[in-house]
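In this supplementary section we document a worked example of the pipeline. Step one takes a protein sequence of length 783 as its only input; no multiple sequence alignment statistics are reported here. Step two produces a three-dimensional model, which step three serialises into structure tokens for compact storage. The input and output of this example are shown verbatim.
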Amino acid sequence: MKPGGVDLRLAFPALGGWAAAALLLARPGAGWWCAAGAATAIAGCLLAAGRMRRVWAGLAVLTFTAVGVAGAATALAGTARHPADLDRLASGHVVAIDATVASTTSGVAGGRFGSGGRVTFHVTAERVSVGNERIAGRMPGVVYAAERRREPRIGERVRLTGTVETAPPEDDIAFTLLSGDWTLEAGAPPWLAWANGLRADFGSAAARLPGDGGALLPGLSIGDDSRVPADLDTAMKQSSLSHLTAVSGANCAVIIAGLLALAAAAGLPRRWRISFALTGLAGFVVLVTPGASVLRAAVMASVVVLGTALGRPGRALPALCLAVLILVLQDPWMSRNYGFILSVLATAALLLLAPPLEERLGRWMPRWLALGLSVPLAAQLACQPVLVLLNPTVPLYGVVANVLAEPAAPAATVIGLIGCLILPVSGALAAPLLWCAWVPSAWIAGIARTSVGLPGSAVPWPGGAAGFALAAVLTGGVVVIVARPATVRGRVVRGALGAASALLLVVATALQAGPAIATRAEMPRDWVVGMCDIGQGDAIVIHDSGLYGLIDTGPDPKLLTACLHRLGIRRVSFLLLTHYDLDHVGGLDAVAGITRLALIDPAHNPGDVFDADELRRGGAQVHVATRGDEGDFGTMRWKVLWPDGRHPELTTSNQQGVGLEIDGRGIRMLFLADLDQKAQDAMIADGLLPHYDVVKVAHHGTADTSTHLDALVQPTLGLISCGLGNSYGHPTATALTLLRDAGGRVARTDLEGMVLVTVRGGRLGMWTEKHPTEAALWTPAKR
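The serialised model returned by step three reads:
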């Protein structure tokens, strides 16, 4: 029943219920059969191992029951979350939705704003209406509000209008809404409103602290990472430190222990101490917002506390299993949530794998060092198979970074939380506490940035199912090596497994890292213009004389940060925002704090002003582009060609985007933003376009393009930045034909990945990520 002193009895029902929910969501038709087969197999193993003893028979029945209840819960929840008529009602219509704000993208009180006048937040829709037809339910969704107004707050009731894109049943949301408008119907209830205000006040107070320490502190204390810049967020993930900003069991344990001690000091009887602690824990969950890891930790802590109150001191592993079962039954989509999966795996590793690892390591090093290494190493080993599905790399310095950062994390968390709670009472009393918490916060941020800057910080790893299987085999090998009894045979088995695992790791690293290293070595260092592979959007980089310029930022700061990191760009001397569509300015957070001069499109709606303000706060000089503006960039010179202010009939953002010319290094380049046919024809009529060697094709290769432009400018190379398999059909056959008929070569990020263009001896060269050895040279167009 308890082999090795470990109580695994509840693990079987928990795994059965978890598997049933996940399988039924992924395969609604075949899921029941898969779940029943899994339950039968588990029950058979239990009965065989227990030789039909009553306790094992009971566990078999409990496992079958867990599978059945999980299946029923999944089916019932699916009906309410994904109503059958939602697709029909929403298709092609502007809908009205009555909903409650559930969270923002970062879990803070007032949403984390994307660029382009948009704010993103999650809602639970109670009613979806088109005309007189309505659908009721509890439908979770994501809202991209088109206009920036007062920030939405968790618990507020809102009315939304816009177009809806429904999600498949296995997704944890039912719809995505592109909102044209949202209005506040009712404020948040008091039990949520207090937390909204406290989160906002704490975030504002932390923002006054300098540097990365201030940005990271709310995340360490209350899980609010909305103010963490994109490059620091990437560094935290790549150094395996991002779990420090996810509220987990350690935070809940500190809360429970502190509240129990406070209640005991006040002389409260045992029953009231337990009630006080659980009430305080519930308030903490509301404050930090109930994400997957928070709920797992809170339910597990509650199980342990209630067990103790009932005279049955809880053990951690059964509490974890019961918490998993409760949460999966309450929300079956939790079974497919990566945050939940990683939280459970890490907790299980700390309970099962860390102690034997510490014992083994303690034979070779001081006990304190063995303890410090065993905890992050166990968590890394357990989580790595899942992590490679999200990002197919292995953080080489992750364990070391955690050993250095972990001692500072409790101080930042506890002191910061105390300061947060004191803020409403006295800002003067909270200020010194926040400064004290800033010190360990800045230390952790420094470790993250330093570790990702070291050579080989992220070792490439196979992606997909193959990468998962390989990481799982290596993890399993380590578990067997650590858990094998210390006999002669056990030592032989451990040695063989250790050698096999080491060989497998070396081979996998060589196969995966070898080509990546070779590709990096083949990248030209003297490139002039490059296209980042950031999906459907634009992020064009210019390079000259050790300076870097950037034209648009793409849709996602994480993708842009990865591109800039790969190119070794730490400072942007010149930034152009051609217009405010999200696929051109959504990645602004990645460069807002590292830009010296920003040239921006004139604002067309109130939300556009936010982008300029964000750049100014980051220290950039901001200038609104007008025709005729020009300046130097290294040995090159840039000039604004469009808009000219003389065509009032051209009013859309695509028609009013900034067209830019860059001349130098023996070539002339034209960047056309998303200008449509009318705007391009107006530029041609104004006589603005001579011959160009390199043209950034307008609007990702849309068909809405001038039929005269390519023949006029005769580009040698056309650059098209677009996402693979995008729903817009970019680039279109029309755009490609016009370009090729004019004698131009085509470079596309969807097919070729990152593209770098060189100029050597008056000849153009092109390097592409997916075909790094094909660097064909040709002569630029004559001027």
